[in-house]
From TrEMBL:
GO BP field: monocarboxylic acid metabolic process; poly-hydroxybutyrate biosynthetic process
Keywords assigned by UniProt, alphabetized: Oxidoreductase
Classification lineage: Bacteria, Pseudomonadati, Pseudomonadota, Gammaproteobacteria, Chromatiales
EC numbers, comma separated: 1.1.1.36
InterPro entries in the record: Acetoacetyl-CoA_reductase, KR_dom, NAD(P)-bd_dom_sf, Sc_DH/Rdtase_CS, SDR, SDR_fam
SUPFAM superfamilies the record matches: NAD(P)-binding Rossmann-fold domains
Highest taxon of the lineage: Bacteria
Species of origin: Spiribacter salinus
Domain Ketoreductase: 4-185
GO molecular function, one term: acetoacetyl-CoA reductase activity
Gene3D superfamilies for this protein: NAD(P)-binding Rossmann-like Domain
UniProt-listed Pfam families: adh_short
Name of this protein: Acetoacetyl-CoA reductase
Record's keyword annotation contains Cell membrane: no
Length: 248
């Protein structure tokens, strides 16, 4: 059997790269989506992973555009085959208090973070059903569970992702498909670098683990949930947040 194919949206980012690296180390073939191949220097990114022995490739796609996702899925099928593992990572922040938020700030976050998960998953779930196997992981956020100052848009999108996950899990379970959410806390990436220093220091002071997490902490959870043997873990949310927010 050919090595399983993993599609990771937004794989070039801090968390995405580590997910690609760890799934690749598990022998998955990797394809990532990228928005702007030149700006993201995506071929060099893929080449770096290849140097580590990972079969890494990319396709251009704006996940917020349904038609583009349809075309992307055709390209992936032609060039690489059927997707067995899908990780929806692509996401943005456009932080601002609600009383100051422009409608575009709201819409862009919902379009990319939440609608993007639908647009991409919709392309691959049918063939996963036909083949009786699929592993889907949606990357949400602690702020989807707890809410956060300045993130009505992001918190709504990330909470919505887990509702989506649970419904996909119910539909997929009879056909060998699992869908789970991983909810990162504050992780050292360019996204958390962009938080104003004073605000970030205040947040870090509230993390019981004493520091932000590493991208590898998230990748480890994704690797666990996408293993062939993980077929009975379905519809779950796995928080990885240094005990910042605990719930059950
Ligand atoms: N906790 C407590 N108070 C907060 C706060 C917080 N997290 N964020 C802002 N405030 C307070 C400020 O201290 C300030 O209080 P005072 O008026 O008493 O000084 C007040 O709210 C206004 O704050 P700003 O002056 O910063 O107002 P602003 O309009 O310029 O910006 C903001 C507001 C956009 C919320 C900005 O503070 C900000 O960017 N905060 C960070 C939001 C955040 O946590 N984003 C997470 C990004 S990382 C991520 O999302 C990844 C993930 O999944 C975890």
């Amino acid at each position: 059997m050919a090595a399983r194919l993993a599609l990771v949206t937004g794989g070039e980012g801090g968390i995405g790269t580590e997910i690609c690296r760890q799934l690749g180390a598990d022998g998955r073939r990797i394809v990532t989506t990228c928005l702007d191949p030149e700006a993201e220097n995506i071929e060099a990114w893929a080449e770096n992973l290849r140097q580590e022995g990972i079969d890494a490739n990319w396709v251009q796609c704006d996940v917020s555009d349904y038609d583009a996702c349809e075309k992307m899925a055709e390209t992936v099928r032609e060039q690489f085959g059927e997707v067995d593992v899908l990780v929806n990572v692509a996401g943005i922040t456009r932080d601002g208090f609600l009383h100051k938020m422009a409608s575009d700030q709201w819409r862009s976050v919902i379009d990319i973070n939440l609608n993007g998960a639908f647009n991409v998953t919709r392309q691959f779930v049918g063939s996963m059903r036909e083949r009786g196997f699929g592993r889907i992981v949606n990357i949400s956020s602690v702020n989807g569970q707890s809410g956060q100052f300045g993130q009505t848009n992001y918190s709504a999108a990330k909470a919505g992702m887990h509702g989506f996950t649970m419904a996909v899990a119910k539909e997929g379970a009879p056909k060998g498909i699992t869908a789970n959410t991983v909810s990162p806390g504050y992780i050292k990436t360019s996204m958390t670098d962009a938080i104003p220093d004073q605000v970030r220091e205040g947040i870090v002071a509230q993390i019981p683990a004493g520091d932000m997490g590493e991208p590898g902490d998230i990748a480890r959870a994704v690797r666990f949930l996408t293993a062939d043997e993980a077929g009975y873990i379905n519809g779950a949310n796995l928080p990885v947040n240094g005990a910042l927010f605990c719930s059950f």
